[in-house]
Amino acid sequence: MCPNPTRSQVKSVAQKLRTVWIQAAFLEPSMFHATLYAASVHLDILQEQETNPITVFHKGKIIQLINEKLNSKGALSDSIVGAIATLMVWEVSYITLFYTFFLLM
Questions:
Q1: Crossing angle of helices 78-104/29-46, nearest 10°?
Q2: For the chain, which residues make up each domain, given as ranges?
Q3: Which of 28-32's residues contact partners 24+ apart within 8 Å by CB, and which partners?
Q4: pLDDT tens column, 2-52
Q5: What is the pLDDT of residue 97?
């Protein structure tokens, strides 16, 4: 009989990423809004909703916070880079999936 590892013993890459992501989201406001933006875009795509004020709010907040960091003299943190990447990926996903769906109908 094989030993059954407990949940705390199993540390997959996905689990580690979730842990790091959530920690960053709570520590860095731009990453927090990027996470909420990603969730909101995902729901917009599922609900076939083109303009959602919640999505627009979080997108605007990410851009504002990123611009503030870029204008400061300090180095960019990994969380800021993560927020930029999240914004980019979901923006492309939204445009690609949403508009392709409507163009094909």
A1: 10
A2: 29-104
A3: 28/77, 28/79, 28/80, 28/83, 29/61, 29/65, 30/61, 30/62, 30/65, 30/66, 30/69, 30/79, 30/80, 30/83, 31/79, 31/80, 31/82, 31/83, 31/86
A4: 555 555 555 676 666 667 767 777 788 888 899 889 889 888 888 878 778
A5: 72
